[in-house]
Amino acid sequence: MIEAVPPRLYGGTERVVAYLTEALVRLGHEVTLFASADSGTSAELVPCARQALRLDADVRDPLPHQILQLELVRQQAQRFDVLHFHTDYLHFPLFRPIAERTVTTLHGRLDLPDLHGIYREFRDMPVVSISNDQRRPMPWARWVGTVHHGLPLDLLPFTPEPRGGYLAFLGRISPEKRPDRAIEIACRAGLPLRIFAKVDRADERYFHERIAPMLDHPLIEFVGEIGDAEKGEALGQALALLFPIDWPEPFGLAMIEAMACGTPVIAFPCGAVPEVVDEGVTGYVVGSIDAAVAAVRRVRELDRRQVRRRFEERFSAERMAKDYLEIYDRLAWRSHRAEAA
């Protein structure tokens, strides 16, 4: 509920929830979405807040609103064969008695020591990873599958011949996303860089002290936060997306958004990057700024039609929905068997 489903601007988790929900409905399934009232969905919507909490000036603490959302789910739980959560671990104590009818997609990093105690305590809760790499810090969790994210095939248009002549950075201004690296790569390659990114309150100091002074360079343009309506143009007209991260990225939605437009990705080999980028096909995985600059100079050698084709093969919303349906079926079978015992 921090963001609407789908979000107006930034919001990777809510965006994936929207794509999954719509794909499940298209495949003929009855789906109920518990989200803010300003969400848009073909499923049955149970409004849990008047609008996205991040955009509501009256909301100072989102936690009470999230607890009320979970209580609404609890009150209606018997209506559903499977309850699919995207709320990290917040719901674990409340839904542990019916763990076999739940599944939780974990969207965040799992290498933080504070998390391990709670996931060890609730090892009976079925969880799904969004990349195989995401599992590494907690191989002992009750993993029931890995499902890579997917996008609707008609969401972002394919651009075979970009006219922009620039590199793109999309996402969030934060130390782990390394926009400073992106700026250095673009400057050394002699190409413009357009930065499509939000600045969270927690990262304002980093932005002002580290990034803002770098924006004076004539090749660098800070555009700010954009939504899906602007992404097709922003990414499609770019020569490449720079993804020079410095953290165990669980997935990296921006990479497949770029691929949907036919735009190759130049990324550092952290987290899920090697699982998402097909080396020499949809982009280049590089280990240094020097290698990234060299990759920028070779990026026109990649076939943008092949980038789009590989996106369609690997990262469609329908494929994502079908992967989850297999997991739902296994959970429902186990739940029915347990009830019959």
TrEMBL record:
<dbReference type="Pfam" id="PF00534">
    <property type="entry name" value="Glycos_transf_1"/>
</dbReference>
<dbReference type="Pfam" id="PF13439">
    <property type="entry name" value="Glyco_transf_4"/>
</dbReference>
<feature type="domain" description="Glycosyl transferase family 1">
    <location>
        <begin position="166"/>
        <end position="312"/>
    </location>
</feature>
<feature type="domain" description="Glycosyltransferase subfamily 4-like N-terminal">
    <location>
        <begin position="10"/>
        <end position="120"/>
    </location>
</feature>
<dbReference type="InterPro" id="IPR028098">
    <property type="entry name" value="Glyco_trans_4-like_N"/>
</dbReference>
<dbReference type="InterPro" id="IPR001296">
    <property type="entry name" value="Glyco_trans_1"/>
</dbReference>
<protein>
    <submittedName>
        <fullName>Glycosyltransferase family 4 protein</fullName>
    </submittedName>
</protein>
